[in-house]
């Protein structure tokens, strides 16, 4: 399987969902996709990718990474320190459950779209969008490895 399991249309829907989610929050959302997870635990790999993508450099430390190893059927959602200090420990559980329901049926693109939109709504409570000072600090495109 290639490193990109998505059609161009699916990729565009995912990027559009990132843009839409970020309109409601100052949080920064990225998606990283690769076929295999080189670490034993997808959360461990997501932490590495988070740093590689420079997601730990946002002003409010409010980056969120959706990590997907599609061939291995593994995924993780992680947030930066700014998020983790404000939210409950199980903050991402409902989003993970939502993703799992789509992924188990093989609907990876739709799962990411729905998960990203839900994450944006959740982040809005803690990191509302501020049109006066908010800038898009990270690209909205999907990164592949």
TrEMBL record:
Coiled-coil portions: none
Gene3D superfamilies the UniProt entry points to: 3.10.310.50
PANTHER family documented for this protein: BLL7265 PROTEIN (PTHR30373:SF8), UPF0603 PROTEIN YGCG (PTHR30373)
UniProt cross-references to InterPro entries, sorted A to Z: TPM_dom
One Pfam family here: TPM_phosphatase
The protein's name in its UniProt record: TPM domain-containing protein
Species of the source: Spirosoma terrae
TPM domain span: 5-121
Domain of life: Bacteria
């Amino acid at each position: 399987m290639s490193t990109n399991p998505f059609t161009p249309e699916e990729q565009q829907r995912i990027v559009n969902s990132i843009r839409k989610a970020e309109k409601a929050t100052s949080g920064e959302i990225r998606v990283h996709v690769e076929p295999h997870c080189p670490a034993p635990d997808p959360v461990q790999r997501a932490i590495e990718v988070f740093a590689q993508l420079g997601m730990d450099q946002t002003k409010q430390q409010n980056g969120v990474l959706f990590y997907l190893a599609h061939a291995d059927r593994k995924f993780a959602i992680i947030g930066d320190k700014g998020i983790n200090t404000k939210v409950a420990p199980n903050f991402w559980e409902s989003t993970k459950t939502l993703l799992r329901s789509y992924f188990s049926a093989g609907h990876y693109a739709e799962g990411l779209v729905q998960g990203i939109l839900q994450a944006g709504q959740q982040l809005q409570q803690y990191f509302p969008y501020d049109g006066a000072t908010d800038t898009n600090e990270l690209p909205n495109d999907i990164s592949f490895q």
